[in-house]
Amino acid sequence: MAKYKIAWLPGDGVGAEVMEAARIVLDALGFDAEYHHGDIGWEFWKKEGDALPQRTIDLLRSCDAALFGAITSKPAKAAAEELAPELRDKGLSYRSPIVRMRQLFDLYICFRPCKAYPGNPLNYKEGIDLVVFRENTEDLYFGLEFPEFPENLRQLPEFSRIPEKAAVSLKVNTRRGCERIIEAAFEYARKNNRKKVTCVHKANVVRASDGLFLSVFKEVAARYPDIASDDANIDALTMWLLKNPFNYDVLVAPNLYGDIISDLCAQMVGGLGFASSGNIGEKVAVFEPTHGSAPKYAGQYKVNPIATILAAKLMLDWLGEKEMAQRIDNAVAKVIAKGEVRTYDMGGNATTLEMAKAIAAEL
Questions:
Q1: Domains in the chain, CATH or no CATH each
Q2: 305 near 14, Cβ under 8 Å?
Q3: Residue percentage of the chain with pLDDT more than 90
Q4: What is the pTM assigned to this prediction?
Q5: 108 confidence band (pLDDT: 50, 70, 90)
Q6: Are 200 and 237 in contact (CB under 8 A)?
Q7: Is residue 1's pLDDT more than 80?
Q8: What DSSP string runs through 255-298?
Q9: Is 308:289 a contact under the CB 8 Å cutoff?
């Protein structure tokens, strides 16, 4: 019997290809696991009206961890038009499977390491090594939205300023949600010899929800006197990150700002082909590359699989397989440093699987 049971979620577009690449590396590593395919993505939305079927939710509950490829999402009208004819009159509404997983399983940590591997021609600056902790279940992604704000609510005094025919999305931060993501950032910093944690916010304008995030940050920071801490407004931070990324180490942010800065940090270390992510809760964890399904490249085995291979590395690390995780990191670093195998985004012509095999050969 295998040591681990892994939910294998290829998803859409190039998802299956980058997952195939990750499997080459995991098999070469000798990772002792059973892989269980999970149905997820656009095809299941079109056929069943559900991009995250209940059978896949049940699978996630029974596995030790999940590796996820990529997903296609479209606006509500376009999504409805692609439903099977027998489903179109049922009033079904498309919801992103990854957002649903985050909320169903309370995957409140979005962990996004951004490391500039030496020799990567796409690096903004050599030596960048940032980690983003993004709150993953609240904020503007909480999901409480009104395409047209209800007239009966607009009659209440606190909502009287909202004009007619206004679309409204509520930004919801809770004390518990703020505290646990901030604690996770400080705990990571302490365990990994990181020197500073920076709070990302806009509390000077968004005084209630971001003000809560900042005040909780200061409370938590006081419990970690061995780690430096500071804070920055999201708009100023994007400027300072580009000017001097070496002033930052661990960044912690509410959901929306974390989404923004993690892509900014990813671009500084080569782009989304190098950006891996962990969606982590108390009992369930789903690991993924942060790029999309890139349908125009589907079937071409063209895209860079390093983000997915590094997502597998994060999964191993979370499972406690530290030595295996480090071997993947070392192998990726060697292939990038040699520069002999490069995918199209790196200026080369290696295929997805050729990159995976090169990394496997360095294990």
A1: 1-112+274-363 (3.40.718.10), 129-138+173-268 (3.40.50.2300), 142-170 (no CATH)
A2: no
A3: 86
A4: 0.95
A5: very high
A6: yes
A7: no
A8: HHHHHHHHHHHHHHBT-GGG-EEEEE-SS-EEEEESS---GGGT
A9: yes
